[in-house]
Design a protein that fits this description.
The chain is mostly helical. It has a single domain, classed as MFS general substrate transporter like domains (Growth Hormone, Chain: A, Up-down Bundle), CATH 1.20.1250.20. Helices cover 77% and strands 0% of the residues. α4 runs antiparallel to α8, α7 crosses α12 and α14 packs antiparallel against α15. The longest helix has 32 residues. It is globular.
Length: 396
């Protein structure tokens, strides 16, 4: 029998599944695979430009949509209205992607997908801090991590086994189902007590920088790993190789996600987030030193152990750092810039690097070294977050 609290946390986090399904199935696999099928283009250069354009939309839209969502909520309009509006745009773009008429149409449809996704995300992110007591933000973040990993596993499985068109159609169906799960959520009500300070702009800035660094490395890996399997390891099915590596990493992540979220409610979260970067750094260094299909299992699992802890506690650290719950959608939208900005810079840097070395092993090796360095720097940076104070009892 599922307890009411567990049922509530599962429902609150269900929409993370379609959001992350798209991140792994579409951006990491289906889009690069679709570009390989378009004749007469430099797939590496085109992907770098597309990835940067996508990241720009994903960075700019959430803070603006978050401001609107905060204002609507203060006037009694539920956040689910904006979540459903964004989901409708998202589904329309995915259906269009499945039947493109060329590179330009493909680009417009992809940007429409990201626009809708970003609108939904901006209104969806604040549901946890508004509906869950602060003393449970860590465990709630752990459930968020599990939902993220389930979405990623499903996306990698579908993207690695199905054609790009089938992947886009599958994502549209999953987004529509996820939007239905938002309907029964009981949202927290607006209260002037939310003017109470939760975090500080200093901690927010330090956590933001740490997040930026780790997302820079993750974006480098996600954007070009399929081409690494194609150009260096010579996989006959590079999409399948990408799915295999990602799936194995997520197996390791599941081991740590919920457990570390629970632990972070009892110790300072910065230590858990810092520790998460260690196995990620070691795994990518291993790939840079000895890039062989023989070591995929061990390195992917090692990477996943750190990634699970990062996913489950990084979100709670973000909520801890938000200055006031009154503007939580806006501030979490700003927090999303720490993911969006690397999404613009990293593909351009990676594309330039791989073109400079002709997509040879040397280029990918340097790319992996840079990713490992950003993971290590992220772990060091987060230690400068000041110890959290006792959080005020702002509950549902």
């Amino acid at each position: 029998m599922i307890s009411p609290n567990v049922r509530k946390l599962l429902l609150l986090n269900a929409f993370w599944i379609p959001l992350n399904f798209q991140a792994s199935a579409i951006l990491a696999i289906a889009v690069p695979a679709a570009l390989l099928r378009i004749p007469g283009i430099n797939h590496t250069a085109v992907l770098a430009v597309l990835a940067s354009a996508v990241a720009t939309v994903a960075m700019v839209v959430p803070p603006l949509a978050g401001i609107i969502s905060d204002r609507w909520r203060q006037r009694g309009i539920r956040r689910r209205s904006m979540i459903l509006f964004g989901a409708a745009i998202n589904v329309a773009g995915l259906l269009w992607l499945a039947f493109p008429a060329g590179l330009h149409v493909f680009t417009v449809a992809l940007l429409l997908v990201i626009l809708g996704q970003s609108i939904s995300l901006a209104a969806y992110q604040p549901l946890i801090p508004e509906a869950v007591p602060p003393s449970q933000w860590g465990i709630a973040s752990g459930y968020q991590g599990i939902a993220t990993l389930v979405g990623n596993v499903g996306g990698l499985a579908v993207g690695g086994l199905a054609s790009p068109a089938v992947t886009f159609l599958s994502a549209a169906a999953i987004v529509a189902l996820g939007a239905l799960a938002v309907l029964p959520i009981v949202e927290g009500g607006f209260s002037e007590a939310e003017h109470t300070h939760i975090g500080s702009w200093r901690n927010f800035g330090v956590a933001f920088l740490s997040r930026f660094l780790i997302n820079f490395g993750l974006t480098l890996l996600m954007t070009f790993v399929l081409f690494f399997f194609n150009d260096v390891l010579k996989f006959k099915n590079p999409a399948g190789g990408t799915g295999l590596f990602g799936g194995l990493a997520l197996v390791g992540a599941i081991v740590t996600s919920l457990w570390m979220g629970h632990v972070s409610d009892r110790v300072e979260r910065k230590y858990v987030v810092a520790l998460a970067g260690v196995p990620m750094t070691l795994a990518i260094l291993g790939f840079a030193i000895a890039p062989s299909a023989r070591w995929i299992l061990e390195l992917a699992l090692l990477f996943g152990l750190g990634y699970g802890a990062f996913v489950s506690t990084g979100w709670a650290l973000a909520i801890d750092s938000v200055p006031q719950l009154r503007d939580v959608a806006r501030d979490l939208g700003i927090w999303g810039v720490a993911s969006g900005l690397p999404g613009i810079i990293a593909p351009i840097f990676g594309g330039w690097l791989l073109q400079r070395y002709g997509s040879t092993f040397k280029g990918y090796q340097i790319l992996f070294y840079v990713a490992a360095l950003t993971f290590a720097l992220s772990s060091v940076t987060v230690l400068f977050v000041r110890g959290r104070k006792r959080r005020p009892a702002v509950g549902p």
